[in-house]
Specification:
This is Pseudaminic acid synthase. It comes from Kribbella sindirgiensis. The protein has about 350 residues and is an alpha/beta fold. The chain is built from twelve helices and twelve strands. The longest helix is centred in the last third of the chain and has 18 residues.
């Protein structure tokens, strides 16, 4: 799978997992909190910070009809009007530039999810290095093509999507000549039950589509993300906040900075641990091989003495005959005097 560069950072199976911290609405309407989140992400070691670029009016209509409300049984946003939710959660467009500038100054890749063509035009003026297609926008193929036409890497989230939906979005992006496509496995539930993550689908998506695959993770904690890397994920996206107790639209399933740092470290270890599909002693095990068991002379013996359980045993270290050869040497005479602690070899018999 070819490496893709996002903001100068290489992304691919041979590289450290690309960890994206999604701010979403966790700024809680405060630009200073948004900037503090950027600083916390930079300190964590994550490579990227991501925003969502929309307004309530570009997302939906200001209506109070049943179709424009979330269900009453929704775990986080019970009976919320869509317009009100998006109004609360959106990141004001005027904040994007200072957020991006701070992120870049701290060595972070900063980009966004565009939710309509006006957002793409706006983000192009800020020269973002990549685009994200949100799960519920995967069926808006003109929007997918619009992001792909910029020629920049495009990351497609797949929550609630069928393989047909995902294939159509990937084809739409490729139709522009853009091959810098990453697909994110995702369960669009907030929070998502771990048992519904279906991470075994990651290699299936990779092989079926011929693209890098990652995970947009809404489960609690970091376990699913680490497991995803073991299954081939090259990108991990998690929502982040400063403190969950501060509240906010996404805080309940977001990581705090210390958890994000742990995620970065753990996914890096997971990626390094994959190694190669080779069975056998590793370089780090060379000293261990010296301490395998072998047959040793355990008592001083004289020439002509017979080998018995008392004077030859299987012990550590290596150097002598294999333990399984004892039945072949038992009862045979020693050729010469031998000191205890001598590895038993054929030339002693």
């Amino acid at each position: 799978m070819s490496t893709i560069e996002i903001g100068g950072v290489p992304v691919g199976p041979e590289h450290q997992p690309f960890v994206i911290a999604e701010m979403s609405g966790n700024h809680n309407g405060d630009v200073e909190r948004a900037l503090d989140i950027v600083r916390a992400v930079a300190e964590s070691g994550a490579q990227a910070i991501k925003l969502q670029t929309y307004t309530a009016d570009t997302m939906t209509l200001d209506l109070d009809l049943p179709a424009f409300r979330l269900p009453a049984e929704h775990e986080l946003w019970s009976d919320a009007r869509l317009y009100d939710l998006y109004e609360e959660a959106h990141t004001p467009w005027a904040w994007h530039e200072p957020i991006f500038e701070l992120a870049k100054s701290l060595g972070l890749v900063a980009f966004s999810s565009a939710f309509d063509s006006t957002a793409i035009d706006f983000l192009e003026k800020l020269d973002v290095p990549a685009y994200k297609v949100a799960s519920n926008e995967i069926g808006d193929l003109p929007l997918v093509r619009g992001m792909a036409e910029t020629g920049k890497p495009i990351i497609i989230s797949t929550g609630s999507a069928t393989l047909t939906d995902i294939d159509a979005a990937v084809r739409a992006a490729r139709s522009t000549g853009n091959e810098q496509i990453i697909v994110l496995s995702c369960t669009a539930s907030y929070p998502a039950p771990p048992e519904q993550s279906n991470l075994r689908g990651i290699p299936v998506l990779r092989d079926a589509l011929g693209v890098q695959v990652g995970l947009s993770d809404h489960t609690m904690g970091i376990g699913a993300a680490v497991a995803a890397v073991a299954l081939g994920a090259t990108v991990i996206e998690k929502h982040v906040t400063l403190k969950r107790v501060d509240g906010g639209v996404d805080s309940a399933f977001s990581l705090e900075p210390w958890e994000l740092e742990l995620l970065v470290e753990s996914t890096r270890v997971a990626q390094l641990s994959l190694g190669e599909a080779v069975i056998g002693p590793k370089q780090a095990e060379q000293n261990v091989l010296r301490f395998r068991r072998s047959l040793f002379v355990t008592q001083d013996v004289r020439a002509g003495d017979l080998i018995t359980f008392e004077n030859v045993r299987s012990i550590r270290p290596a150097g002598g005959l294999a333990p399984d050869l004892f039945t072949q040497v038992e009862g045979r005479p020693f050729r010469a005097d031998v000191k205890a602690g001598t590895p038993l070899t054929w030339d002693l018999l």
